[in-house]
Amino acid sequence: MRAAIIRDYNADLSLESVPDPVCEADGVVLKTLACGICRSDWHGWVGEHPKVKPGAIPGHEYCGEVVEAGPLSKWRVGDRVIAPFILSCGACPECQSGQTTICKNQRVPGFGEPGAYAEYVSAPHAHNLARLPDSLTPALAAGLGCRVTTAWHALTGRAAVQAGEWLAVHGTGGIGLSVLLIGRALGARVIVVDVVPERLEHALSLGAEAAIDARGGDAAAQIVALTQGGAHVSVEALGIEATTNGSIECLRPLGRHVQVGLPVGHTARMEINMNAVYMKQLALYGTRGMPSWRYPSLLSMIETGRIDVRPIVARQVGLSQASAELRMFNAPMPPGVAVITDFAA
Predict the structure, then answer these.
(1) Which residues cross the membrane (predicted)?
(2) In this structure, are 307 and 187 located in the same domain?
(3) Per-block average pLDDT, block size 10, for the chain (345 residues)?
């Protein structure tokens, strides 16, 4: 099969012919229909993720058609499915309690496993997969792969955002846009923060109540003033120190901070304003991914039109264009995300 491989960090991916993946007993092999290009992939591509080494095939936001099914899998050849990026074992105490995103035996394509920047991908622990609704195109399904699912769980499974609450979003990439769209659907009043005017304007067009350019000064203080006391919930969607502190400092007393951005490599340890946490008695939540059993609640919101994910996907590209898309993460990016939909180009 054709695949894009990291041979050197910060260098163009190598397009190569490699052996097709092997189907595991409890898994499936998918013909990749689409795969999102995510900032998490960029962390691996630049060498800052400990599980991504030269020789890795990136890609964890994917959907596909089953071409081979293991004997312990419930799926059949021809089924079209969408995959969470965390493939949990289903048997450990964490999985049995429903907390599958902290499964100790989890497997993540693209991070220690061959990913979906390839014509085919192996998906072990196939009980995690969900059927791809006919109303959802592969490009949109891949676009929501990690971003929308993570945002959905962050807001509903962790912070429990309520209608009428102020919701601040720091960073308007794929995750930030997803938080905006879902927050609006849940009835929250959303404020976005970014440094790219085009992205701020895009967020306003999608229903953000206010957009703050962080280059203009203390974004946290602006949010506190605008909301007359601070946001009830704030989501950090970049994984860097400045926006993490901005998220914490913009909250009102008893507010909830949700860390969605990935702190890894040089950002794995940060200097955090713990005095603000203490004095305002804040709650800090970490979140990563979404338990697979929550797919029905999210997909029903999308299928009934309560959440429109179409604004998230800005570009559909060929596999050979993935390097250029990864390189774009080195600087402030235009709105929307890219999805690989042509694995021959």
Answers:
(1) none
(2) no
(3) 98 98 98 96 96 97 97 97 95 96 96 97 97 93 89 96 98 94 97 96 96 94 98 97 97 98 94 98 97 92 90 94 96 89 96
